[in-house]
Each structure stands twice: as structure tokens, then as C-alpha cells.
Fold this sequence. Notes:
- The protein is globular.
- The model is unreliable at 7-16 (pLDDT under 50).
- The longest helix has 21 residues, at 411-431.
- It is α/β, with parallel strands linked by helices.
- The chain is built from 13 helices and 18 strands.
- The chain starts with 9 loop residues before the first helix and ends with a helix.
- Helix 2 crosses helix 3, helix 7 crosses helix 10 and helix 12 (302-318) packs across helix 13 (411-431).
- Strand 8 (266-269) and strand 9 (272-275) form a beta hairpin.
Amino acid sequence: MNNKKDYSSELTKRKRKKIDTVCFDRFRTPPKQNFFLMPLIWFLCFLLTRKGKLKIKKERMKGLKPPFIVLGTHHAFSDFYVTPLALFPYRANYISELEGFEAFGEWIYRQVGCLGTRKFVNDIALIKNIRKVVDRKGIIVIYPEARYANVGTTAVIPESVGKLVKMLGVPLVTINMHGNYLQSPIWNLEIRKEARQEAVISQVFTKEEISKLSYNDINLEIQKRLSFDEYHFQNEKKMKITYDKRAEGLHDVLYRCPECETEFSTDSKGAEIYCKKCGVRYTMNEYGRLLKNGEEWRFSHIPDWYEWQRECVKQEIDSGKYYFDGEVSIEALPNAVNFINLGKGRLIHKKEGYFLTFSDYEQSEQTKYFSSASMLSVHTEYDYRGKGQCITLSTLDNTYFIFPACDGFNATKFQFATEYFYELSDKYRDIT
Length: 432
């Protein structure tokens, strides 16, 4: 590493305050959803989905009783309003990242049945707690994509999900939701009041059917059941969204201009996304289509632009040109109590993985390594709590929220690179 900076000096710059560095208790047995809170939970979920005129369709659910496992698509925070209504009248336990525990309080989050974990880590404590829920004849709800949809399409679903379903040996249920992303996309959370919500909850396999299937067969069906494309859904349903700032924020996801192919040159305002370098402009119409000069073009379907960027990152990696080395701001979340400002640090990303250099609490400078072979993907945010873009890197006992303090930082590009590096490392493992 050239031009190494002493990030231990950041310690002297921080404002001293009482902080809690005790790690979250991952092994604590999750309680059932509080029986007396359930009427309030269902009532609030009903109120919060009224604006979307939620419709729920049930398939093969008649007569099904706990225990069973539920896998849901993950669009937006409103997923957590739809799922309890789809499962009515049953209580359930939900896998949740620690951000929710910190935001709402650990006590209340446990009372509503949440199991705390961190994203994209192998957590044996979580598996043990899932087993405890099933053994006491409960329902466990998992959103296996582990993050909200960037452009309203399915994210990577780990193969380990099929193995988990096979191991638990209880019925498998899926919930495929629609409209949640369109109502509040991750890159601009303002509610679109005209977005309509639907959900299909299905018993995919009975206990007996699972016993006869391989985990590969289970995975294939999971991929099929949890597949979605929200812009296709919007266009198909002729769902008109007139919100006048409907494209604002989209440039954080669609960061590469398709005309001049310049990275990080896009911006957005109102219903338009445009390139600050070459000046090309595209308008998102009321049905979620991108138009150029009022006409359809090759990336009128927004996910096509997104996937083109993915291919560009793959080409950059294959040619040996991909490399990130820059200054970042870091906050740590070791528990459900507080974020801890770690000041500035240095992030390097290359084929081997992520290297994060910083000063942790009162200790000296250190570098944490997150290998490509261990990271299926990376969590992305576009305006996290009003602080802008960030990615998170996690160990079993801490999560590091990493914000840009330099040019060239883009959460979507990190995601594409992380997923491709994992894919390449997986291929290497197969060969060796």
C-alpha cells in the first residue's frame, strides 16, 4: 500500500462520549411474538397497507399449520407489513439485521419476534435459533435476498437456503410480493401513493415432498417462486404513477452513461435521469419506462440498463483493470445500542476481497480482510439515514457502515464486483 495514512490519529479527533462496545448476543433464544401485541401488529399492518389496496392470494395453504419456513421477496420496508397479514392468524419469527434493533430498540424488536443477525456472514448461532423456532412448532420468516431490490428485480439467493430447507424438514412456503418496491424504491423512499400491492403466498412443498427432493431441486423451485420484475409488473398492470420526482435518486443505481459510457456521470431531477458529461437525457414516464426524446430505446426497461452495468464490471474484472483504493468514513454497529463513529479509514477492493484499514474504538490501527470467497454479495444503501451511499462489511460480532470520502465510490458497482469475484472464486473451488 503506497501513501499509507495513519488512521490511528483519528482517535484524537473524535469527540469523547460514552459508547457501548459489547457485542450483540447472537445465541440468545428468540421469544415468540408477544401474544398480546399481535392484534396491534395486524391492525397497524392493515392500516399501513390500505394506501396500496393490498390483495393477498393464497395457494395450497388450506389446512397448513406450523411449523413451517417462509421465504419472502424483499422489496422495501413495507414487506414487513404485508407478511404478517399473509400469515394471519399465525405468529412468526423474523430474521432481521441489527439496524432495526438499534432503530426501534432491542426489547420491542424481540417482542415482535425478530432474530438478530448480520448480512452476508455464516452465522451458526442463527441456524441454531432457527432450529429452536421450528422445534417449538413455530414459523420462521426469511428474506433470503438480504437487502431491498435495487431496480425491482430479484437479487442473488444463496444456495445454502435450499440446504437449510432440506435440513429443517418442514413445509416450505413462499411469499412473492409486488408493488412494495414501486411504492418506495430504495433510491428514493418517498411514498408513491398510486402504487398497488399484491402478494401470493404458496405452500411450495409439504414435509413429505421435501424428504424426496435434493437441495438442488429445492433451490431451483425457490428461484422460480421468488422471481420478480417490478417494472414489468407495473407496465403489465398499467399502473400509472404520477409522482413528479419519480426518477430522482435513480442515478445512484444507474451510475454509468450508456451513451458516452462514462462512470459516475449520471444525475437525476424530477422525472429525468441525465449525463452531466455528454448531456443525454431520459424521461421516466408514468408507467416506469425510460424514454429518449419521447421514444422507446434499448434501455427503456430500467433493469436492462442495470444489467448492462453488471456486464461492464465483469469485463473490467476480466481485463484486470478493476481496483478500488480510497478514503472512506466508517461507523461500527457492534450491538443493538449504538453506532460508533470510527472516523476516516481506507478501503481497498480487488480480486482477493475487501481490505478495511481503520482505528477501532481505543485500539491501534488495524486492517480487516473480507475474502471474496466468503462474500456472496454486499449490502448496499443509497441514502442511509440521510448520510448518502454506503456499503456494509460484517464480521460475526460487528458491522461496518462504509461511506465515501473520495471519488469513485458507488455502492452498485461494489455489489456487481463482489458478486462476480464470488462467482469466480466459486468456479476456482470447483476446479481445484
